[in-house]
Amino acid sequence: MPATWGIEEYGDFCLTLSRNLTPEQVLTTFGADPGEARLMSASQIESEIEMTETSALLGAGDTGTWSFCIEISNPIGFADVILKNLCGDSEAFALSRSGHSMTTFKYAHAGRLSESLEPRNPQTVRGDSHHAFFQRIQNMSPDTSAAMASCR
Length: 152
Fold this sequence. Notes:
single chain, alpha+beta, 22% helix
């Protein structure tokens, strides 16, 4: 895995991973029209897309049986209802950060939220996931950011 996945440069973002959904299904879950999607480079996005305080930018794709969506600005993928829909009968993850400060990690399985937490904050752990993601994150080097520890 790359050292940063490029997410450290973002303020608000949400990265979701969904097993057994296509990128088109993921975009639809977010309320976007997959027919409107287009392939763009980062420089094209900067020069051609005008972001407002209420707009969002979605990047979607897949790798094997997993589809991903990265939301830049005004993310909603961490919302329980979105995550439950993204997991369907399988599983999904959401990693979000608001304004370079609060980071949250959520895991949903078989249509229900199984674990929710703020990395490195034991008071926020909720759920009954057998994966114990919080403990895995705690075992990462304290020099690793909460977002990167969650990605790993």
